[in-house]
Amino acid sequence: MPVLKKETATGARLIVGYLGIFTVMIGVILLLPLLLLVFYPGEMQYAKCFIVPGVAAILIGYLLMFLIKGKKEGTLSGHWDAVLLLLVWIVTIVFSAIPFALFGNLTFTQAIFEMTSGYTTSGYTVCDVETLPKLFLFFRSLTHLFGGVGLILIMTSALSDRYGVNLYNAEGHPDKLVPNLVNSARIIFSIYALFIALGTVAYTLFGMTVFDAFNHSVAAVATGGFSTRNESMGFYINDTTGAYNATGIEITTIVLMLLGMTNFFVNLFFVTGKWKKGLRHAELWFNGLFLLVTVPLCALFLVNAGISSSYGKGVEHSIFHLVSAASSTGYTTLSGFQNFPSAVLLIFFFAMLVGGGQGSTAGGIKQNRIVLMLKSIYWNLRDRFSKTRTVRTNKMWRCGEYITITDKAAADNNVFIQLYLAVVLVGTLLLAACGFPFKESLLEFTSLIGNTGISYGVISSASSPLVLWIGTVGMFIGRLEVYIVAVALVQCGLGVARKEVM
């Protein structure tokens, strides 16, 4: 008898089918906070807030999976992987907002903003966190963990490596630690687990409860910035009662933020003792030089403005907040940033704009791109003033290797930076159109798209829905990176025009 060939799932059927698999996984994530009921049984009344959307996501995802069940999986041609990535993030945020809407403390717009902030590791909040049940505080930290590592890294590890790699790269991770994606996921989770565990132990030793220590450790390593206190890290570091070891908590936070903003590859080198190879990474030197120059300057400006009581205190404030801004964590010990000296705000603006290392949990343009841009300028000037027509090979250090940079790679890099700056300008103008001063609008949107979370007086629980939606879109574009969102939208338009989705 002839063998019947399986029908091949392509186009919209394939996209929706894969989206179904991811939706089931989203449902599982939503049910994870229920594990906390073992330690806090008094919060059983809030379990339904997670059970309802969690079970719904699993059922809906299971039904969508029938579109590809028993069929041969086709290949997503063109840039449909970017479209699927965009859909996965949107569905994840929407389902994750439902628990807050069911709890009743946030409007739907506020809940979407809060969860976008969580998964993009921005750290903005419109909640009174000190009144939130621990189930919700724990869930907020989980969004940092999954969003920081990468939703797609987590989810595609359950799919074929062939397909998973495409989505993994589309999410903004240029490197795989090892050839197999599943093993890469395990290595990255192991590194994260190690850092989080060490951070939790350190915070506990310095006076935090185990619950607070875990949540702050996750947020610092994921460069997210969610806190269990309305005063953020200032609650512990500015403590005058002696209940906390403020210096220990501050140093621990700085170290965790630095680890979080470092490339996964480089962290792996350090963990495995390959220090020499790890130090051969241009971003580390760039970050060190940046802090070496800006910390003394910021300290001087803060002392002159009366914000820091002494130069030593100014240095302390500068190190913490510059690392927090550059790593896009957003932890603070001070308030009223919009009233800081203009010179300090300019340095903060640059730190948020540049961000952390590529292939890390940090946001921003990424230090690797800035280094490449600066080198491109140098190479261009060098060639212009060269007296001989010498053909040179341009190289730079990346993850322990002295790699060759092609003209196309340098040009693509510069285009990305220009596109990023254009989005910053558009977002700034939108916030300014809502009635905010240009300076605050510029700083706020740079913080939003950089997934930093430091507020300059624009975003708050009292913000209008329009401002929150502008902020939501800004954080979303920043986390997925401008190219991915643009490519996905263009692909959708072209797909509809060509009827490729049918």
* Average pLDDT level: 87
Which structural class do the helices and strands define? mainly alpha
- Radius of gyration computed on alpha carbons: 23 Å
- The fraction of residues assigned to DSSP E strands is under 5%
Q: How are the strands ordered across the major sheet?
A: 1-2
The shape is globular
Low-confidence stretches: none
Distinctive features:
single chain; 502 residues; mainly alpha; two-stranded parallel sheet; two-stranded antiparallel sheet; 21 helices; globular
In short:
The chain has 502 residues and is mostly helical. It is 64% helix and 2% strand. It contains 21 helices and 4 strands.
Describe this structure in words.
The protein is an all-alpha fold. The protein is 64% helix and 2% strand. The chain is built from 21 helices and four strands. It has helices at residues 11-31, 48-65, 80-103, 108-119, 134-149, 151-156, 161-170, 181-205, 210-221, 234-237, 246-260, 264-271, 275-279, 282-304, 311-326, 342-354, 367-385, 407-433, 438-449, 465-480, 482-498; strands at residues 8-9, 72-73, 395-398, 401-404. The strands form two sheets. The protein has a two-stranded parallel sheet. Helix 1 (11-31) runs parallel beside helix 3 (80-103), helix 4 (108-119) runs parallel beside helix 20 and helix 14 (282-304) crosses helix 15 (311-326). The longest helix has 27 residues, at 407-433. The chain is globular, with a radius of gyration of 23 Å.
